[in-house]
Design brief:
By secondary structure, this protein is mostly helical. The protein folds into two domains: 332 residues, no CATH class; 120 residues, no CATH class. It has 20 helices and four strands. The strands form two sheets. Strands 1-2 form a two-stranded antiparallel ribbon. A two-stranded antiparallel sheet has the order 3-4. A hairpin with a 2-residue loop joins strand 3 and strand 4. Helix 16 packs across helix 18. The chain is globular, with a radius of gyration of 26 Å.
Length: 481
């Protein structure tokens, strides 16, 4: 055996590989439990899903050996080239892929179907790591920040055009990487506020109290409160807080008194207060030349504009099935035989598993195939039914330990390229874990993304394997090994 091979074997992180092996094996047995009886054939017959997954596992193992034998500099040198090829493949997929269950994201090559979106994750991670690891790179300069966003959004937009919303949303995970590398927390604040405003307004969209639309009132009050807090933080003057709170209290008290005589739309009061505060902030900005005040005012005005656009975006831009899924998730509609069917049946399957489950291949919901896509996106419900709360908890703990280990590996990297790529890997796995399990138990809308290493699918398994082992190859080359 060559010195290089011995070095790699000694320096590779075997704990992460152990996690990988356990999850792949557990995933294969879970696929068996979800699909064995419907194939009516041997578990090792390649015509069935368990047998087919075994082939993909074998191919993944072969890829692992190839990746580990490659020179670590290849990934850095050819990062942009790999990204360019994958983006071209994504663009070609838009025009060449057949429609499969409403999605045009699969390239059919004879008996094999490949989903380029699964491979775009590691390609984007490589390109982002390559770009951000340049000498003297500073993320907070406008040019660098916009360029980094373009690298992330180009494949994301291509995947959206394939009508594969779930896979496209995975690219939001890169914002965690950007935050680690110096992105202002204000960007994350804006993102979190946008989600909060959207969900709150949609939740109370049709609720009217008197003549006041409750959803718009609550969101406007949220904007007002956040703007007030940011204003006090920027000025560091508690007296401003006293005056703002006093004015808000007086305005709503006056509105309440008037409402005893005539109907009052309290939403307009909240909106007028917010706009008045924005005018005051702009006045302070011009008087003191402190741009923080202007930025806070822009945030508030942008939030109001976003509030006005929510209903239009929901009704005119989102696809009808996305609208229904969001409404079902927020409890606005009860559609047990339509959009809510998958989630309801998934909950029943998980709940029927009890503490320890019904045992391998003994799940009734699984055997009768009540849950559509139970071998792919909804594979976690099979785990819950067959292995119960104990088995489900062990899977979550396994993934948590795996992701924590990836973060530890990322932190110990000696190069910016390896560190950024490592955080990209950890963020992508974290996003998949949270959204997939949240989707299966009804906490997040059904957007259709797989559970890594557990869901059936060759493209998914190959994509996650390449994503992970490129990082392990980079980690194995540290000088400290």
């Amino acid at each position: 055996m060559s010195i290089r091979k011995v070095s790699i074997l000694k320096s590779i992180d075997w704990l992460t590989i152990l996690f990988y092996i356990i999850m792949v094996i557990a995933g294969w047995f879970t696929i068996c439990g979800a699909s064995y009886e419907y194939d009516s054939m041997s578990l090792f017959d390649v015509a069935g899903r368990p047998g087919s997954q075994l082939l993909w596992i074998g191919l993944s193992v072969g890829l692992v050996f190839i990746i580990m034998m490659l020179d670590k500099d290849i990934f850095d040198v050819f990062a942009y080239f790999i990204y360019f090829i994958i983006v071209l493949l994504l663009i070609a997929t838009i025009f060449l892929a057949p429609d499969i269950k409403g999605s045009g994201s699969w390239l059919v090559l004879g008996p094999v179907r490949l989903q380029p979106a699964e491979f775009a994750k590691f390609a984007t991670a490589l390109a982002v790591a390559r770009f951000m690891s340049q000498y003297g790179f500073k993320l907070n300069t406008p040019k660098n920040f916009v360029s980094t966003l373009l690298l992330i959004f180009i494949p994301m937009i291509c995947i959206l055009l394939q009508k594969e919303t779930g896979s496209a949303l995975v690219y939001l995970a890169f914002f965690l990487v950007l935050y680690r590398e110096g992105m202002s927390g204000k960007v994350l604040l804006i993102g979190c506020c946008a989600v909060l405003f959207f969900v709150t307004n949609m939740k109370f969209l049709d609720v009217i109290v008197g003549i006041t639309p409750l959803g718009e009132l609550i969101v406007t009050l949220m904007i007002l409160v956040i703007t007030t807090i940011l204003t006090v933080g920027a000025s560091r003057n508690k007296g401003i807080l006293y005056w703002i709170v006093s004015i808000i209290a007086f305005a709503f008290l006056a509105g309440y008194i008037v409402s005893l005589l005539v109907p009052v739309n309290f939403y307009w009061i909240a909106l007028a207060l917010t706009l008045s505060l924005c005018c005051y902030l702009l006045y302070l900005a011009f008087r003191t030349w402190i741009m923080k005040y202007a930025l806070i005012a822009i945030f508030a005005l942008g939030s109001i504009a976003f509030l006005f656009s929510i209903e239009y975006v929901f009704d005119n831009i989102l696809e009808p099935h996305h609208q229904v899924r969001i409404k079902v998730s927020l409890g606005l509609e009860d559609d047990p035989t339509g959009a809510g069917y998958n989630v309801n049946q998934s909950k029943i399957a998980i709940g029927s598993g009890g503490l320890t489950g019904k045992g391998f291949l003994n799940g009734t919901q699984t055997k009768l195939k009540y849950v559509p896509e139970q071998e792919t996106d909804f594979i976690f419900c099979t785990i819950g039914e067959e292995h119960g709360f104990v088995g489900s908890t062990l899977v979550v703990l396994l993934f948590s330990a795996f992701i924590i280990r990836l973060i530890q590996l990322a932190e110990r990297q000696e190069t910016a390229f390896a560190r950024i790529y490592g955080y990209s890997v950890a963020s992508i796995f974290l996003f998949h874990l949270v959204i997939n399990i949240g989707m299966v138990i009804g906490l997040t809308p059904v957007i259709g993304i797989p559970l890594p290493f557990f869901s059936y699918g060759g493209s998914s398994l190959l994509g996650f394997t390449i994503l992970l082992f490129i990082f392990l190859r980079l980690d194995s080359s540290r000088r400290g090994n």
